[in-house]
Amino acid sequence: MSLTTASLFTMMDPVPRKYYGLGRDAQKMKAQFSQIAEVSSTDEPIREFTEFGGPQNLEMKPENAAMTVRTIQAGPVKRVAAACYAAALQISREAAMDGKYKAVASSAKALGRATEKTPERLFAQCLDRSHNTAYPVTADGLPLFSASHLTPYGVTFSNTLSGAPALSETALEDVMTALRTTIGPDGELSPVMFKQLIVPSSMAVLAEKLTTSPKTLGSNFNDPSVVNGKKFMVFDYLTNTTRWIVQTDADNGFYWQWRESPQFERDNVALILQAVYIAFFRAMWGAEDPRCAYSSNAV
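RE: above sequence
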């Protein structure tokens, strides 16, 4: 029987769809970036954000006196466009005729894994570059971590430790102190709290020791550890092995926004008798408010 493009599609279609889904499902169970970023969907191709500084403090209003009109200050505008990532699987007429379903299944499953791994890599890359001035992330035109972030009122603040210390209990104590002196958009004190410690795989053991030991590591004075019980997570996709990040409870922090969530579609290719399947997604990711994290540019 002659094999046409239509019959090729009919014959092969269930196999790549099934195994692509299995590949995605297996990898989805191990998702890590979604433990850091707030994941959502949008119909907009561009994400736009800016920071507004409020009227700072209210003033006393004497009876029958007019109120003082205060100004709301707006900071710079940051726009992030959705990016598309895609890959294709081609199934030849010969593969269909020769019944190479195992090869098709393995390839489709690998494509499914890649669909789930790509957001992990992209989000990890964002964090790996978070101290690099060549990759501005926040609306003030600076990388995520900087000692000179600017509020709409012109007040600067830092979310990186001076001296770039390595991960230790002392460094984490310094972060916890710094978080309580955080400056808000209006230039006034706006403390944030420790949410979780994020480390690369090279620091997994140290992070666990620091956050589970009731006593200060290496101390001969039996003093209690103030970081004991703090949450931590290992983000295995980070490639930098020395930096560490403390995520805070600040609003408008890390985000991953789907413009189009992962899709798996059959493409129409004429004349060459191939079934072509395309996996793709469109998304935006990053961080809006730099107060969402504190870090050390340790080397």
